[in-house]
Write a structure and sequence with these properties.
Elements: E1 6-11, H1 19-29, E2 33-38, H2 40-45, H3 48-55, H4 73-80, E3 83-89, H5 91-98, H6 105-112, E4 117-121, H7 125-129, H8 131-142, E5 146-147, E6 151-154, E7 160-164, H9 168-179, E8 189-194, E9 199-200, E10 206-207, H10 214-225, E11 229-234, E12 246-249, H11 253-264, E13 269-272, E14 279-281, E15 300-302, H12 306-312, E16 319-326, H13 330-340, E17 345-350, E18 362-363, E19 365-369, E20 374-376, E21 380-381, H14 382-394
Helix pairs in contact: 1-3, 1-9, 4-6, 5-8, 10-14
This protein binds cytidine-5'-triphosphate.
Cytidine-5'-triphosphate binds next to helix 12 and strand 16.
Length: 395
């Protein structure tokens, strides 16, 4: 499955460093060529010799050791890598990578790679929770570094909380997913909407919702990786859009409607993951509304239903995917929505489940097709959900 793939496995000094041996072993069994880089601290926890035998390759530790070839080792390892996985990743390596610090073999190599980077953090729960560590993780995520989230459980330090290294099997699965990504959307144009809309009341205030845009941006990113041309029509978010997408920024539902309609014809697949506001204030006050009237009443008027409009004007062969957010009767309400809006698929989100919906990096969805096929997915990263949506549509 991973024949011909070069996996660079970085091991840092966490107690779970021994689990990296299992990761290396599983990767070798899948056919990958594994090169291990250890930090000095990691070598205090696991003998480099163990990794040498498991990976059948020399283990890199020292920047100034005599390289195997004329090229500096960190460059030759970086050049041939198809993926760099760091497991376990301590707060220290995360901080170094987030700020471009290169002071040992692993951090220097990480700056030189051009392949995807995957990080599996492991540390004490309070350290993981620390605002600076979280900021560093965010910086890396904004730079497209992928993460396998730490898990809850008993930690080596005696605490119980989030910070355990993810299960090696899960980490290896994620590596396989990244390395075997298909280019099955080559030549297709995908239009994705993301984020909330803002419906202005006056120059200062607006009505909006809690959508972060993470789901839509993940869809855009995955579509690009799978070879598609992507048009991303987005409401206001804090996320950096993928470089290669054509990005159209909008604020209101009406602006989103116009942008979608003028780009819909060229799209093979349209995915409406934006949380479009159903209503807008009927009156827009040119001046800031003053607090001098006592109680006031806001009159709202309906926004166009973009998804329904797309469903009505679907061109031959076009696939339209809607999202559905529900707090009760998920399946029943979502199937109703699919039929009413003439969509081909609905991705249903159950907002009552922890880990699903707004703002999170994960989601729990059920995908429903117009022919009645229902696929329930477990808790996954939004990135993996995006892949699962395309797998389902293409099938
Ligand atoms: N949608 C849209 N235009 C709107 C409202 C929603 O295109 N004015 C799309 C969303 O992008 C999503 C789907 O419709 O793909 C479902 O949105 P949801 O808010 O769950 O459903 P509504 O149709 O708004 O119904 P309700 O709020 O009554 O559940």
């Amino acid at each position: 499955m991973l024949n011909g793939k070069n996996v660079l496995l970085g091991v840092t000094g966490g107690i779970s460093a021994y689990k990296a041996v299992e990761i290396a072993s599983r990767l070798v069994k899948l056919g990958a060529n594994v090169n291990v880089i250890m930090t000095k601290n990691a070598t205090k926890l696991v003998q480099p010799l163990t990794f040498r035998y498991i990976s059948r390759n020399p283990v890199a530790i020292d920047m100034f050791a005599e390289p195997e070839s004329w090229k500096p080792e960190h460059i030759s390892l970086a050049d041939k890598a198809d993926i760099l996985i760091i497991a376990p990743a301590t707060a220290n390596i995360i901080a170094k990578l987030a700020h471009g610090i290169a002071d040992d073999m692993l951090s220097t190599t990480a700056l030189a790679v051009r392949c995807p980077i995957l990080i599996a953090p492991a540390m004490n729960c309070n350290m993981l929770d620390n605002a600076i560590v979280q900021e560093n993780i965010k910086i890396l995520k904004d730079h497209k570094v992928e993460f396998v989230e730490s898990e809850y459980g008993m930690l080596a330090c005696g605490y119980e909380g989030k910070g355990r290294l993810a299960d090696p099997e899960k980490i290896v699965q994620k590596i396989v997913n990244i390395l075997t990504i298909k280019r099955d959307l080559e030549g297709k144009t995908i239009l994705v909407t993301a984020g909330p809309t803002r419906e202005a009341l006056d120059p200062v205030r607006f009505i909006s919702n809690r959508s972060s845009g993470k789901m839509g941006y993940a869809i855009a990113e995955v579509a690009l990786k799978r070879g598609a041309n992507v048009i991303l029509i987005t409401g206001p978010t804090n996320i950096t859009p993928p470089d290669k997408a054509k990005v159209i920024n909008v604020e209101s539902a009406l602006q989103m409607y116009d942008a979608v309609m003028s780009n819909a014809l060229q799209a093979d697949i349209i995915i409406m993951s934006a949380a479009v506001s159903d209503y807008r204030p009927k009156e827009f006050s040119q001046q800031k509304i003053k607090r001098d009237k006592g109680e006031i009443t806001l009159v709202l008027e309906e926004n166009p239903d973009i998804l329904a409009e797309l469903g009505k004007n679907k061109r031959g062969g076009q696939i339209i995917v809607g999202f559905s957010m529900e707090t009760e009767n998920l399946l029943e309400n979502s199937i109703k929505k699919l039929k009413k809006k003439n969509a081909d698929f609905i991705v249903a989100n159950d907002l009552s489940k922890e880990g699903a919906g707004f703002g999170t990096d994960t989601n729990i969805v059920t995908i429903i097709s117009a022919d009645g096929e229902v696929k329930e997915l477990p808790l996954m990263s939004k990135h993996d959900v995006a892949n699962a949506i395309f797998d389902f549509i293409i099938k």
